[in-house]
Amino acid sequence: MAQTFDKHRDPLEGALELTVDQKRELESFLAIRVEDALAQKKPQEAEWQQALRDYEAIPKKLKKDFPIEDPPNIVVPLGAIACDSLYAQSVDTMFNVSPFVTVRMVPKGTEEEKKEQVQVGKDMQSFINWGCINEWDLPHAGDDMLIDDTQLGTGVLYVPWIEKIKKTKTAKVVQFGPKIRCLPPEDLVVWGCTSGNLQEAEGVALRFWLTKQEMQDRAKYLKWDIEEIQPSPADGGWLRYQREILGNQKEIMELKGEFFETFDIYLHYDVDGDGLAEDLLIVWDRGSRRVLKCSYNPYDYRPLAISVFQKRPHLIFGIGVMKMLKNLQDAATDVMNYTTLNMLLVNCRHYKGREGAFPAGDNVKINPFKITFMDDPKTDLVADVMADVYPSSYQTISTLLSFAERRTGVNEMSNPRPSAVMGSRTPGITALTMMQQVNRRFTPAFKSMRDAFRDAIKQVLYRYKERLLAGEKRVEEHLIQVMGGEAGIRLAQFMAREDFDEHFDMELTATSAFTNKEAERQNAMMLVSILTSYYQRTMELVMVAANPQTP
Questions:
Q1: HSE (CB half, 13 Å, CA atoms) of 232?
Q2: Rounded Cα gap, residues 339 and 393, in angstroms
Q3: DSSP structural state of residue 499
Q4: The pairing of beta strand 181-183 with beta strand 504-507
């Protein structure tokens, strides 16, 4: 059995020995701040919960009885259609490029140092290309983050140092290194932040749901104090519970009462009363409200990168597609249900009968091939229409779809449409340029995604730097094993420098591979066309020169 957990360097490194009064004061502070932050986040989580239900096209009321018994009760999934389209576009835009991240060195110092730094830049580019695919689990975390970003408006990447320990007769580390994980946005709790920058927030808490066995493993390897821990009364969190219900995976219910709700809290707090706030990493158990471990923050930067689809100024969490289209989806759902009901009622008839024409108490039903005897069928039983045809409802639905497209920029490029500005013989490059101009609606969202991926990879490099500065030889050996002797040593020495991140810049060039291929093909065709005209003129001149009559 393999156990995997986040290891913040050495379990004893940077640990703080707190007095009883200091620990109790810290626990009281955390209980107030975390609970207050969770309470303030409840409306946001309720919004996310409704967004998940709307994405799954689940009606607000599972059974309706108005205006007739059991009327149509479908949900028009406008939000899901837009989310799926944007998710596919973002995956194509982010991952169908090579290299995924481009490293640009900024050489400093003497000419010899600059030349060496350029070579280090090439080594780092090769290392990042290898790590994104083979070691850091970027594609899997990136997929989850892009889905959260488009659906809920916020995607969170968490980059810890992971050690995977295989339990045999003796504990043996079989895998170690940084990993990029996607953290559900409901498990990110922030307070004291007005700029939208997690690095500047007073407190950032990451929530984890652990079993008793996992708590015991962390007590053994990470030196957590778990004597007073208690299972969480939150039953796994209501939003996570909603996720599992919608996905038909009821892990929370099966383990109800056995979860421990722990928080990794990155906090600026004056724990020793000297007037200066320390940069701390605290492990806090919500069930018992006890501090399991308190240490200085072992990371140079908080190991988080965040992406928002539509930014809310000065706030952490953004607006997702489901929130954007909620009112329009509700309106389209109502109109569609009314239209379906109208189609049913238009094809139905309401029957009016003369009093006494039928036996008392009989509920007359009109069925095919059934004979109903009456004295005068023309007057004893009269059919009447139940509804009229209203074709305007389809125009209303079309209008709502147009509003949804303009709100999200999905599918139709209404402002302007390509057919309105491009003819049938428009060159390919011109067409691609026009498509890019009308598709600028996604520029802020895709920029935020690119920045999050870039920051996550920077966090990966910071994890290596922190371990190298701590003197871990196995990290240098790992780099040498991956990159080879000279390149691995050169990269390890460079990453161990305190100012190594000042010498390079990284950017994620997000573009469509299909667009690139189309552009390259159009460029080649244009080049051939230009060369053809030159060759034709050249041949004419050669023929004139070969003519003996030519002076």
A1: 23
A2: 6
A3: T
A4: unpaired
- Using left for φ > 0, alpha for ψ between -120 and 50, and beta otherwise, residue 273 falls in left
What are residue 382's DSSP bridge partners?
A: 352
**Residue 481 pLDDT more than 70?**
yes
Q: Give dist(CA 325, CA 151) in Å, integer.
A: 11
- At 191, which helix (H) or strand (E)? strand 188-191
Q: Which residue has the tokens 């990136």?
A: 142
Q: Let me know how many helices (H) and strands (E) the chain has, helices first.
A: 17, 15
Q: 98-133: per-residue pLDDT in tens?
A: 778 888 887 777 888 888 888 888 888 899 989 988
Break the chain down into helix, strand, coil percent, rounded to 5.
50, 15, 35
Residue 17, sorted as left (phi over 0), alpha (psi -120 to 50) or beta, turns out to be beta
Joined together, the tokens standing for residue 59 give: 């009606």
What distance in Å separates the CA atoms of residue 534 and residue 329, rounded to the nearest whole number?
58
- What span, in angstroms and rounded, lies between the C-alpha atoms of 18 and 63? 57
466 Rama sector, left if φ>0, alpha if ψ -120 to 50, beta otherwise = alpha
**Cβ distance 372 to 366 under 8 Å?**
yes
| Cα gap 469→496, rounded to integer Å | 6
d(CA 109, CA 116): 10
432-470 pLDDT, tens per residue? Answer: 454 454 456 678 888 899 889 989 999 999 999 999 988
| CA–CA separation, 277 and 300 (whole Å) | 16
Task: Give CA–CA dist 94/513, Å, rounded.
Answer: 10
Find the radius of gyration of the CA atoms of the chain: 33
